[in-house]
Amino acid sequence: MFDGRHNCIVVVGAQWGDEGKGKLVDVLAEQADMVVRYQGGANAGHTVVVGDRQFVLHQIPSGILHGGARCVVGNGVVLDPETFFAELAELATQGIEISGRLFVSDRAHVVLPYHKLLDQASEKQQQIGTTGRGIGPAYEDKIGRRGVRVTDLCRGTGAREFLEPRVERANAMLKLLGSPQAASLDEHVELFGRLGDKLRPLATDTGLLVHQALKSSQRVLMEGAQGALLDVDHGTYPFVTSSNTTAGGAAVGAGVGPTAINGVLGVVKAYTTRVGNGPLPTEAQGDLQKQLRDLGGEFGATTGRPRRCGWFDATVVRYSARVNGLTGLAVTKLDVLDTFAEIPVCTGYRLDGRECAEFPSDIEALDRVEPIYEVMAGWQKGTGSATKLSDLAPAARKYLDRLEELSGEPIKYVSVGTRRDQIIEV
Ligand code: GDP
Fold first, then answer.
1. pLDDT, tens digit, for every residue of 190-200?
2. Tens of pLDDT along 122-165?
3. Which of 11, 148, 204, 337 is spaced 20 to 30 A from 188 at the CA atom?
4. Phi, psi (degrees; rounded to nearest 5) at 37
């Protein structure tokens, strides 16, 4: 993807998240000078396998696993400082050196313990299927102009006065939501004292860092979390996350203009999964769903929750290509389908008896759509050792060709296993 004309690439999930973005970012980060996270928080979990070691990164860009890349947590992220430092400590025990390589936007908002209490209390009422990590309430506070930013945490003075009205408001909200829990002002003041000093050396105007990197023709990779169908504007609202996961969010969340971005790689599984509640038109039934889940190891990296599994949905990917402005696709987990004799692919929807070309905005319509399937022959042969397209069985290549045709985007990568080297560059 990186070449003389393309030096700022966004990697986005083009389905409902967990597509394997971490692996693609890891592969592309090898060529990048800078890797930027631009939205989401500790609810996202990227799993990256390096040799026989597995890293689960929640807030730190996966580029950290490459010695050469500088990593940025952008202003669009909501940072949970407690788990951020736990993640850093874990990386240190694994021998990953971060000093001078990791920067946090001083404009990023912070997730505090009261956000987690609010998240858990409102989840009881709304049942969106959130991870309860305070992400939604932190974004609500950001938009409500009462948020707490990294720069506030790093100020070093006046923490009690700054926090008091916020903790009081959170407690009033908790009462309203019927929660028996209350946030402690002392705990928040202590957290500010303890973590402010640690965060200060990392906090800076990261938009400026990204700008300078691009100006000096460095290669910048922007790493999305979750997927397009969980975007707060474009996803299956209200069963979405609280940020813009799509490529437009990368400009805002990294602090650069949209013209800086010149490539968008959409990561899709060779099938479909989603975690949490909400529509999933191509959800597989019974044993087939269990088979996909077991073969794909489809359990959340953050929560361990079983993911809902189904077949590739071309309506979703076409929509995703449009709202992200994709310039290429990476198809992951092809190997998970190795044993299936037949593989259904959804080519479009029927809604109330009529063909429906576009992805509906109405959640009730999405519950009613009937996927139109085309059944492709499986290849029933291992793909895990393929290093080029011609190593794949003809049926596997036919499957990929069909996904490309239906999605309308060129496939640039095919991933055939968890390891770094199990990737085919097309
Ligand atoms: P992300 O948030 O999009 O990075 O996705 P996750 O990390 O939650 O889930 C992707 C999972 O799939 C991880 O456990 C990866 O190691 C694994 N994975 C990525 N690519 C492949 C692949 O091609 N084949 C298989 N079997 N697993 C893969």
1. 999 999 999 99
2. 887 777 667 788 999 999 999 999 999 999 999 999 999 999 99
3. 204
4. -90, 135
Which residue out of 26, 33, 46, 188 is catalytically annotated?
Answer: 46
The β-bridge partners of 273 are 309
Q: Any residues with CB less than 8 A from the CB of 259 and at least 6 apart, and which?
A: none
Query: Average pLDDT of 228-253?
Result: 96
State the distance from the centre of ligand 1 to the C-alpha of 297, rounded, in angstroms: 9
d(CA 240, CA 255): 23
Q: Residue 302 — very low, low, confident or very high, per pLDDT cuts 50/70/90?
A: low
Q: Which ligand 1 atom sits nearest the alpha carbon of residue 23?
A: 19
Cα–Cα distance measured from residue 311 to residue 337, given in angstroms and rounded to the nearest whole number? 10
In one-letter notation, the amino acid at residue 213 is: A
Backbone phi, psi, residue 102, to 5°:
-120, 130
Ligand 1 centroid to 336 CA: how many Å?
11
* DSSP per-residue letters across 61-117: -GGGGSTT-EEEE-TTBEE-HHHHHHHHHHHHHTT---TTTEEEETTSEE--HHHHH
Catalytic: 18? yes
Banded model confidence at residue 268, pLDDT cuts 50, 70, 90: very high
With residues binned 3-state (H G I as helix, E B as strand, rest as coil), the percentages for the chain, rounded to 5, are 40, 25, 40
Find the 227 Cα to ligand 1 centroid distance in Å: 14
Residue 202 Cα to ligand 1 middle (Å): 29
Segment among 51-60, 225-234, 362-371, 373-382 with least mean pLDDT:
51-60
Atom of ligand 1 nearest to the CA of 300: 8
CB-based contacts of 50, cutoff 8 Å, min separation 6? 26, 65, 420
| Active site annotation includes 66 | no
**Tokens linked to 377:** 């022959």
What number does the ligand 1 atom closest to the CA of 416 have? Answer: 23
Which of ligand 1's atoms lies nearest the C-alpha of 297?
A: 14
> Which residues, judged by CB distance below 6 Å to any ligand atom, belong to the binding site of ligand 1?
13, 18-23, 45-47, 49, 297, 301, 332-333, 335-336, 415-418
Average pLDDT, the chain: 94
Protein residue whose Cα sits closest to atom 17 of ligand 1: 418
